[in-house]
Amino acid sequence: MSNEFPQSEELAALISCVTLSASLPAPVHRLPPEILTRIFPLCAPSYDDPVRYDWQYRSARRQIERLAQKHLLDLAGVCSQWLVLIMGTPSLWGSVEVDCTSAWSPRHMDILTKVLQRSAGTPLKIYVRHIENTRQRAALLMLAENSARWEEASLSLNWLGAEILSHVRGNLPQLKLLRIGSPELDAFETAPLLTDVCVRSVVFPVIRWSQVKILEIWGLRTHYGALSVLPRCSMLIELFIILNGNSTLTAPPDDEAITCDTVETLTLEGCDRDPYGYAAEILGHVLSSLTLPSLHKLCLLPTVAPWQQQPFLGFSQRSSLSNTLTFLEIRGIDIDTADLVELLAELPSLRTLWLTDVAPSAERSEHIIINDYLLHSLTRTADSFVVPSLKQISLHSYAPFTTKAFLDFATSRWDNPTRASPVNIYLWIAATAPDVDSATVVELQAMATRLKCIFLYRKLRW
Predict the structure, then answer these.
(1) What pLDDT sits at residue 26?
(2) In this structure, how many other beta carbons lie within 10 angstroms of the beta carbon of residue 313?
(3) H helix and E strand count, the chain
(4) Three-state secondary-structure class, residue 190
(5) In this model, does residue 50 exceed pLDDT 50?
(6) Which of 106, 291, 385, 428 could be stapled to 318 by a disulfide with Cβ–Cβ 3.0 to 4.6 Å?
(7) Based on the number of CB atoms within 10 Å of its own CB, is 435 exposed (0-12), middle (13-18) or buried (19 or more)?
(8) Using CA atoms in the order 68, 69, 72, 73, what is the torsion angle rounded to 10 degrees?
(9) Non-local CB neighbours of 188 within 8 Å, separated by 6+ positions
(10) pTM for the structure as a whole
(11) Pairing state of beta strands 297-300 and 124-129?
């Protein structure tokens, strides 16, 4: 019996060992504070999360949770160490969202006051929407009093909110990013560090266009007037244009194009609906207006507008894209494969090409662009082929091409006699599409390994 249980000395030693082990901190508690303060913000819900359009997102309870930064309060309840760290780190409280689409109460003001106090002197990222009454006006006034700390501002305001913002003029020493959807404002004209601007209103704000490096334009209701700011953007590098089929438009004057010599990246993204049938006309006018002689990267993203081939070829010729463009992405554009091949033939300097088929649906025409005709055009031959300088290609396909066409394309790009930098190939096939022949995949992977390049094949659910 005595052999079945440890002696008193052994028992005491075991108890001491267990007690010591229990007192050891969990691995997460051994992380230094500077690491934790980088992790905690990643727990925040995304401001750009599509759920914000849901009615529940707009509810008063949800607004309070976002204003109070509930994710931080939840983390602070884990342990006393995290509580002290979170409440004592002002940078964690630098994001302030004031959404007045629901009722705004004294409780909201109390929470806003506490958040601003906890943020201390840290730079602020503010998001403000819908200032419509006196109580909501007080919230914007409180933020305006802290405008010297604004680093990023996203503002969707009516005339009442715009009137309040006039008080921040000359007191925006740290503002770097502005997203604005408001009546005409001159409050940001003297912001010395403002370089990133997104305009979502008909009337543009008054700012120092000469210092803007990134510009995003939504709507283009009178698009020529909107684009006419480009020649004043002498430091502009990235330009994003979001087309809006709900808009009316005016055409540019005859024989006059808008030139911006510094733009290196252009993204054209379409609208998801076109109730008035303007989308195609707007896209054509935008392409007919622009001249970008320094363009290196072009992204054409989904739009319901039919592709405008001739305006694009004119834009390409005016901008000398044959010499400058090295990156092209075409995603979900209703373009015929023949037009695509003609387009690629005009861009011999391309090194990176990303293509995504239009997803078949009731609303979109099924223009499958990644097919045998395209692959034959990309296949290196003694006669002719498009994109001779290609170094990387990514194909998101519904797989209507034959295995032989794809194999011929891949091997031709890898059989370059100079053996200089074989093309990296990424093939993404929709889960609903037929598989590529497994033997071909194995063969291509073996060749890629031997040539020290990349061949990646995956099936995805889009």
Answers:
(1) 65
(2) 16
(3) 17, 16
(4) coil
(5) no
(6) 291
(7) exposed
(8) 30
(9) 169, 172, 175, 178, 180, 194, 205, 206, 207
(10) 0.84
(11) unpaired
Helix (H, G, I), strand (E, B) or coil at 209: helix
- Cα separation, 264 vs 330, in Å, equals 17
* Residue 453 burial by Cβ neighbours in a 10 Å radius (0-12, 13-18, 19+): middle
Taking the C-alpha atoms of residue 376 and residue 27, their distance in angstroms, rounded to an integer, is 56
Phi and psi dihedrals of 179, rounded to 5?
Answer: -115, 120
**Residues, the chain:** 462
Question: Which residue is it, tokens 């033997």?
Answer: 439
Residue type, 84: V
**Lookup: tokens for 235:** 């430091």
pLDDT of residue 426: 96
Which two three-digit tokens encode residue 169? 């003029």
Alpha carbon separation from 297 to 291, 292, 452 (Å, rounded): 14, 11, 26
Of the given ranges (80-84, 242-246, 413-417), which has the lowest mean pLDDT? 242-246
Q: How far apart are CA 208 and CA 325, in angstroms?
A: 29
Helix (H) or strand (E) segment spanning residue 321: helix 321-324
